[in-house]
Amino acid sequence: MQNELQEKFRLSVLSLLGVVSVLGITPFVFIRYFQGNVLAAIIDLILVLGIVTLVGYAVRTKKTRVVSWIVAVFINTGVYAIVLANGVDSVLWVYPVIASTFFMVKPIEALGINICLMVACVFLPNVFDVISLVSFLVTLLMVSVTTYVYASRSEKQLRLLESLNTVDELTGAFNRRALTSDIAQALAIAERKKTPYMLAILDLDHFKMVNDKYGHAVGDEVLKDLVAITTAKIRKYDRFYRFGGEEFVLMLPDIPNQQAFIHNLSTAIKKELKTPDGKEVTVSFGVASWVPGTTADSWLKNADDALYRAKANGRDCAIFSDD
Ligand SMILES: Nc1nc2c(ncn2[C@@H]2O[C@H](COP(=O)(O)OP(=O)(O)OP(=O)(O)O)[C@@H](O)[C@H]2O)c(=O)[nH]1
């Protein structure tokens, strides 16, 4: 789920670039050809075909980050080649290329690519006899820096939006929307690589009593503490979600000993999760391992059924769905 907005944004920018390059550059393939500048026509043709192929690849594979990088370098190199082949007549193409680079790669990376292009432009022959090198560089720098500032701010806002979209405001755990998206991804990975994923639903025991006795604000603190304790016990690629209310979901790939892991986590929670007067707050676990043919619904249902049995068993215990 993380970076999903960014990937969608990159994919739409790449698609737009594909359309714009076909519509904008293709006519120049013919114009250059009929003007007798076959080399420039070939470079334009390579640019159009290259962009369309790369964009098509990104749409099919969703590998937007790496393709955006290749496209950014490709169009910067391409525009340099076309100015080299066609001279001052093509120099205005450098401006849209400079600006569009910021929509493909990270702002600081775009700035780096732009600076390389600007330095290379200094060595263009037969261009700066006609236009002023200083004006050209200053205007390029102005476009580059203003687009850098704009792109940096947009990137920050996108990150904030992503966090609002995927993180539970109270506890800082991932939210249910993130879980829905990540389960689909985990199922695809598990199916492809046969990774032994584990999904556990954690539910605080008698949490209503905590709220009733100590107040809602203390209940909130207990929820936050549970997230802090659990997060400290999992690896960086494991995920912890707030499923709703006092129910949480853990999704962990490649856990060699699932029983031992749950036992350790449960012990840590018993030891560390306390009410203000030092009373233990316990958790019940319903655990379901991925098996071939698992769907998102069946996975959650198996874990939920196991949790139900854990509650019926007296709480403060873990039940595995295959027990
Ligand atoms: N403080 C606080 N309480 C919440 C929040 N969301 C849900 N709750 C409370 O969680 C409690 C859940 O109560 P129940 O579903 O009866 O579960 P329980 O008391 O934990 O009982 P068992 O699950 O059967 O052990 C309710 O009192 C809800 O008000 C929240 O964001 N903050």
From TrEMBL:
Matching InterPro entries: Diguanylate_Cyclase, GGDEF_dom, Nucleotide_cyclase, Rev_trsase/Diguanyl_cyclase
Keywords, sorted A to Z: Membrane, Transmembrane, Transmembrane helix
Reactions catalysed, as given in the entry: 2 GTP = 3',3'-c-di-GMP + 2 diphosphate
Cofactor: Mg(2+)
Entry EC number(s): 2.7.7.65
Regions that span the bilayer: 12-33, 39-59, 66-85, 97-123, 130-151
GO molecular function, one term: diguanylate cyclase activity
Pfam families membership: GGDEF (PF00990)
Catalytic EC class: transferase
Stretches of the chain forming a coiled coil according to its record: none
Domain GGDEF: 195-323
Entries under PANTHER family matching the protein: DIGUANYLATE CYCLASE DGCM-RELATED, REGULATORY COMPONENTS OF SENSORY TRANSDUCTION SYSTEM
NCBIfam families recorded: GGDEF (TIGR00254)
Protein name as catalogued: diguanylate cyclase
Source organism phylogeny: Bacteria, Pseudomonadati, Pseudomonadota, Gammaproteobacteria, Chromatiales
